[in-house]
Amino acid sequence: MPLPILVTGGAGYIGSHTCVALIEAGHVPLVLDNLCNSSVESLARVQRITGVRPLWVEGDIRDAALLQRVLAEHRPQAVIHFAGLKAVGESVREPLAYYDNNVGGTTILLQAMQEAGLRNLIFSSSATVYGNPASVPISEDFPRSATNPYGRSKLMIEDILGDLVGADPRWRVARLRYFNPVGAHASGLIGEDPRGIPNNLMPYITQVAVGRLPELQVFGGDWPTPDGTGVRDFIHVMDLAEGHVAALAHLLGEPGMFTVNLGTGQGCSVLQMVQAFERNSGRRVPYRIVPRRAGDIAACWADASAAHRLLHWQARRDLDTICADAWRWQQANPQGLR
Ligand code: NAD
Ligand code: UFG
């Protein structure tokens, strides 16, 4: 059996889809998750999709002794590090929880890896590190900034990883900046399962369509965009998952650090997304335009050419597939997995 890939946060949204992609590529995922924002049922679903159950450890990345044991016992060849908190609004209210979990948790993980002689890491960064970009599409050399503690935690971790590679060239690090991951596995067995009322557009739309929420509030109809609503780079979560497999192959082949955007390279407005969803679900999504949400930006989409060049990867699933898959998941699991 090949040495496993440690997937922190692997029971979560992007992590569970990445487990599927890893298994399909012949890897063995070893998931470490404290289940603070997920359910272990997602791993049972990964098994239903692939026929393989990921190796599983319930625990926290801030538990150094546990990490030491897991690394010694399983000797993973690399770590894909998804574990972290990700709600922007909550990070403003509870900054310490974000710095502790995201920054503190990552340094404890890096320390344990270093002690175990394991220096291959893929890190989940975010397009949030570009702040309010001066123009679109956004390439990796754009200036970085943060407007909230969540974003600042990602900036800090990116810098910590840069320092680490600078200090010890044996480290191999990928910093992957995700744009807006949406959709679900085509089976409808795994998907995004937010707690409470969703903050993000796509789960909000699917919950309106399934009747859990009355209507969508569109945050702002006066943005400087073609239809006045916000524009984002919505990437199918399975494309994103496959991007990790491509990044892993590159990482294991070459020392050093690389930083790439994982996006489609195309912008889609909130209203375009609503229309695409209605077309693919056959449901109406009632909406109302309300004032802008604090902290939002007009438009954000990736220059995705570096990932294509370096990783030979590009997103291939279109907006219709995103909507059809998100709807299949929502219909089959109206209350999610928890
Ligand atoms: P998610 O909440 O579904 O997954 C994160 C997982 O990490 C959860 O299963 C949670 O239980 C686990 N976790 C959190 N803290 C932990 C800890 N201390 N120890 C062990 N497990 C812990 O979120 P996701 O959407 O799958 O995001 C994964 C990563 O990608 C996060 O780092 C997030 O910041 C980043 N990211 C997400 C998006 C997005 O829009 N979804 C965009 C950019 C970046
Ligand atoms: N929107 C609505 N109504 C809603 C929710 C969202 O109109 O109920 C709009 C937003 O105003 C924005 C667009 O839909 O114009 C997308 O909003 P999301 O909340 O889905 O996503 P964001 O682009 O705001 O942020 C997401 C993650 C961040 C991450 C960023 C870039 O939440 O953590 O993508 O990766 F940093």
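^ UFG complex. The pocket of nicotinamide-adenine-dinucleotide (ligand 1) is lined by residues 8-9, 11-15, 33-38, 60-62, 82-84, 86, 101, 105, 124, 126, 178, 180-181 (CB under 6 Å). The longest strand covers residues 120-126.
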